[in-house]
Amino acid sequence: MIRIGMLTSGGDCQALNAAMRGVVKCLDASGTQMEIYGFLNGYKGLINGDFKMLTPRDFSGLLTRGGTILGSSRVPFKTIHEPDEEGKDKVACMKQTYYKLQLDVLVVLGGNGSQKTANLLREEGLNIISLPKTIDNDLWGTDMTFGFQSAVDVATNAIDCIHTTADSHGRVFIVEVMGHKVGWLTLNAGIAGGADIILIPEIPYDIDKVIEAIERRATNGSRFTILAVAEGAISKEDAKLTKKEYKKKLSSYAFPSVSYEIADQIQKKTGREVRVTVPGHMQRGGVPDPYDRVFASRVGVEAGQLILNKEYGYMIAYKNREMVKVPLKEVAGKLKSLPKDASIIKEAKMLGICFGD
Ligand code: F6P
Question: Binding residues for Mg(2+), per the UniProt record (predicted)?
Fold first, then answer.
């Protein structure tokens, strides 16, 4: 009998259920008897001892179901990782729940912050196995995270739809893409959707270069221009500010996000009609695409194998087309940023895509 705790933490994404199903199916297929404790709403459930008992049957029919059957939340990581009383108290509560339920292992499905907490619990002596989740694809130690490809599909579809209306009206359109502080999602959706201009945090933009690219297209006979702009895109001037100064600027912003500021500048400087479309959380919703169903099933199975082998303290990762295990201590607290000189960026530039640099 294995007693397994499971939780999904941080922003949700499309293949969380598929990944949990993979873990349980793998163990079930090996004839393992298990008690599954599904903690509700991420680490909150572990802190408060809030869980539901699950059986392998509960994981049937989950392959295509978006969201998470366990619920998720963002526990403010500061309140866990600060060495103050509140932080210590939360960690103590999590340990207490784990030991009270006599868990053999806790399986954590999460992105950057959640992996950091998973590692903290590992340091505290808990048996942890984690799975790489995020639409942002910014987890260190893995080439791919589940949720990413499905989000690329949604964002690409948004850009596809915008093409026809942008053409009809002869407008400049900005599609704002999620991705937090990295540009993986915007870059991939931008290329897949045929965006003319892609602005990502890794390459601070010069608004005049962006405008030049729009005017060049108009001169060459294009009725419209589409920009894929990462929610974390930043101008060359703003990139010179300190973090504190930039935060202050953002908080005094007249615009809901950087895309609207860019739109305003383009409109004022060119006199062209500009519109902004924000697919927002749609990018995290709906069914996982086939790639993510396969990918999440595979990471689930690999986690199941680690559980069977009693190998703890690892995150399942995808490296050089192989599933591997990466020590959690190496993953925690690191971000996988998109290298400015990545070949995909060079290739995108060779397609004629402007990055505003
Ligand atoms: O990390 C996933 C993500 O969707 C980011 O792309 C985005 O910046 C953030 O989460 C949005 O978070 P929330 O759902 O808390 O608004």
Answer: 112
